[in-house]
Amino acid sequence: MLDEREVVAMRIGERKVRSVPAEFVQDGAVVDSLKGTLSVLKDSGYSDEESIKWLFTEDASLPGTPMNALRSGRKTEIRRRAQSLAW
User: Fold this and answer.
1) Per residue of the chain (87 residues), what is the pLDDT tens digit?
2) Within the chain, where are the H helices?
3) Residue 15 lies in a domain
4) Is residue 9, in this structure, part of any structural domain at all?
5) Considering its fold, how many domains does the chain have in total?
6) Model confidence, pTM
7) What is the three-class DSSP state of 71?
């Protein structure tokens, strides 16, 4: 079960329904490394919407998106990149 304090969400659609990206869930649970990564992004000054955009923006140096990397277990690399955003 998702705890709204563990993930970020965006309001989408005409009715502005609060939605969580499906990719945040893997094997029936929130991606293990997501909570800490979102904390780092928040500490870097990112809003919920900016964090989601960053997680799903293609990055040729990964390759793929930071979210793809988190889902494949590459937490340390992604958190390092997120920490550098504050500088």
Assistant:
1) 444 455 687 777 788 777 888 999 999 999 999 999 999 999 999 998 999 999 999 999 998 999 999 999 999 999 999 999 877
2) 34-43, 48-55, 66-71, 75-84
3) no
4) no
5) 1
6) 0.83
7) helix
